[in-house]
Automatic annotation (TrEMBL):
UniProt KW keywords: Oxidoreductase
SUPFAM superfamilies linked: Flavoproteins
Domain NADPH-dependent FMN reductase-like: residue ranges: 3-156
Name of protein: NADPH-dependent FMN reductase
Alphabetized GO MF terms: oxidoreductase activity
EC number in record: 1.-.-.-
Pfam families in alphabetical order: FMN_red
Amino acid sequence: MIPRILVFAGSLRTGAYSARTADAAMKELALQGADITRISLGDYALPLMDQDLEAEKGVPENALKLARQIAAHDGLMIASPEYNASIPPLLKNAIDWTSRVRRDGGRPFKPFEGKVAALCSSSDGAFAGVRGLYHLRAVLMACHVEVISPQCSVARASEAFDEDGQFREERLRHQMTTVCRTLIDRAAMMSTRVEP
C-alpha cells in the first residue's frame, strides 16, 4: 500500500522557513514513494477557538474541510516554527478547531483517530525551533495521534537551504530521510484513512 501523507507548515509568512522545510519534506516523501498532498493552513482560515462561538454557530466549515483532509490521509508531516518556545497560534488554533469535529453528514467522525505524524521545526536561531515541538507533540498525542520519534530540526534556517530548496548540510538531509522513511513505514502499517 502506498501511504498518503498530508504536508503543511505552521506559518503563513512569506518566505517562512517552516514552509521551506515542508517543501523539502514533500520532495523527500515523494522520492520515497509516498502519495503527497501539500496544503496551506491559509486555505482553511478559522476564527479563534471559542466554545461560545461553537455553541452558537457550530464548528466552522473550514475546520470540517481540514478534518476531511486529515481523515483522507494516513499520515501528517508538519513543519512548524517556534513562537516563544511553543506552538505558533495559527497551528494550535487549526488543531483545536479540527479536534472539535465529531460528526460529518450525521455520522460519527474522528479525523485524528489512528493517524501518525512526523514533526519538523525550523528557526534562524541555534535552537532550531525544537522547543516548540515538545508542546506540539503533546497536543497531537492528546488528539490520539501517534507522533514518531525521529524529527528534523533546522537551525540557522536562513543559510540552511540551497537554490533548489535542498538542505546544504548532509546531517539535515540524513535527518529528513530518516523522518520520512519512518513516517511512511508507520503510516502504511496503521492506515485507517477515510476517503472523502
